[in-house]
Structure formats: structure tokens, C-alpha cells
User: What shape does this take?
Amino acid sequence: MSGIYLHIPFCKQACSYCNFYFVTRTSEREHFVKRLIEDIKSYGDTRFSEETVETIYFGGGTPSLLVPAQLEQIMQALYEVFDIDPREITLEMNPDDVSAQFLSDLKSLGISRASMGVQSFEPELLEFMHRAHSSEEAMQCLELLSASDFKSFTVDLIYGNPGQTTEQLQRDVKNLLEFNPPHISAYSLTVEPRTRLGKQVELGRIAPPEGDMVAEHFDIINQLFSRQGIERYEVSNYSIPGKEAIHNSNYWEHENYLGLGPGAHSFWWDDKAERWENEQDLRKYLRDEDHLEKEELSLTQLAEERLMMGLRTRKGIGFENLKQRYNYTFNDRQLEYIERMVDEEKVVADEGVKLTDKGIKIADAIILDLVTLH
Assistant: This one.
């Protein structure tokens, strides 16, 4: 097995852009931890517990709303059930939950990587995103993280916000780079339906970000990060060499992973490939009444997914990998399209296909064109 993802669904408040499953009632945390441990133990002596687990990822929601004692109980259960040989154990956290003692406790539990949701240091942007933390808390948190024993950590940043100026973005990047982060996830703001932001855009109260502005922000981020030796290795992910996220990289390469908790996704490929999502309902999860629907994936579906994910990465996708693992080869129309993209300096093609910096800006369009030509 490649990894285990644990979805901790609690949040203090709803961020305006977030479409992940969460609840703002936090009174059920203790009940949830007990149920999660039962869930973990249900996988004992199954095919899922036979493979070695290399990565564990606590996501959400806000995993830092759990206290170290609760996290310790979860970790103990994982080690009892699964064969764990960890290369990376990550926990997402928000700045307003962090103290020096909290970070020390996490490290003592074996958590090796912190994922800090800063998003911005600009007060008005934090208010627009409806974040629970302040600019001062974000700075203090990164100071604590830099001074801690965490040698591997990542910081989230969001750009392309409506009305966000280049000066604001440059300040955000400058403030962030002062802490020498080994990894940064920088996301262009996406307007998702059924979110607070999506509703405001739908009602015409907020204009969605303009494409030209987002492209300019993307260029600024790439240039400023690169100057500090932090290079893009996926559309939204940047790191210094050797600090790439192992858990997320395994998602992109179709390694097996098990998702635990309401709303978590799983993917498992042995004699057949299956994907399933836990129901997004905490109450049903607590009563052990949540419903799973498994989807079996064909080799063609897997190949197209691998193309979509691989082309978003710096490595791209190799012709031999597609042929050997997915029995997939490009047809004449696809090869002609790739040649045209090479001429336009959007694609590099040798033993495989990868997008250039010019191509990565329109990655979704190129991937869609390529897949539909098959």
C-alpha cells in the first residue's frame, strides 16, 4: 500500500471557498475518534492490511482541532492494524491552533511533516476567505514551525482572489519566503458550487477572478519561488529538491491508498481497480450507517486519469509507462496534436510527454484535447 488518508471533518468556521466535507459542530470529536479507531480496526486481517503503508495523511477539515492524546490513540490503532514503515506522516493544521508544545507533541507521536493552512497574510484577504486566523497568528505560527524540530513542512497559499493586487501577492510571497519553507502549495482560487463564495458569485455580488490576472499571479509566484530554489513539480506544488510531497505524489501515480472518515476517498488496484468515497455524513459515520458505492475502473479510464495527473507534474508521463501498465498508446491524431504543441513550445516530447511553463498555464485545456482525440 502507498498510504492512508484520515479525514478529520471538524472546522471552527466555514471558509468561503472550501468544498471539502466539514462540520462546524466540534462537540462530537471524542465520539468521532472512537468511531475512527473502530473503523481502522475493521481492516485487520484483510487484504488492505497486508501491504506496507509508507505514508499517512491527516486531512480535513482541521486535524489540529484534535488534541495530541486523541491523535496518539489514532496512531496506536494504525500501528496495531497495518504494517507501517513510514516515509512521511503529515498533519494539516491552522495557525490559530498551533503552539510550541503542540508541535513538540506531534513530533513525539511520529508525525514528520506539518501542512500549514496560511492562505494569505493580508487581513482583508483573510476576511474575504473567512479564515479563522489573523495575519499575526500566521506569522507567529511560522516562526514556531521554523524553530521546531519539523524539518519537513509545507505552507498553503491562495492567489487569484477577486481584487487581489500584484503588490498584495508579492507581499504574501515575501512574508512566506522569510521562513524558508521547504514546500509550498500555491492554489489559484477556484469558485466551487455550494460554497459561500460560489453563492456570492452566482448572485452577482462578487466577480470571479479574471483569467489574465490569474495568469499574471501564476508568473509572479513561479519567478519569486524559483529565485529561492523552490521549483514547481506539479501545477500547484513547489519544493526545494528532495522535499516533494510523497503522499500526494503517490495519488498521481495510481498507488493504492485507503481513506478513513466521512467523505474520504479510497483507491485500490490489485486484480481489478476500484475507487470509492465514504458518505459525507458525520452522523451516519458515527452510527456506522454510512453507505459505500464502489466504482470499478477500466484500463482505458485508468490510462486517461494517469494522463491527466501525470501531465500536471514536472515529470510528465512516459510512453513506456502508459504502454506497460495501462496498455495505452497514442494514436496518429494524438501524436499530431503533440507535435503541434511542441511547435508552440507548450509541450516537450522525447521518451514521453510533459508540459512546459507555457503549457502548464493551459494544462486543463491541453489534457482535455489530448484525451478526447483518443
Notes: The mean pLDDT is 95. Residues 6 and 103 are 19 Å apart (CA to CA). DSSP finds 15 helices and 15 strands in the chain.
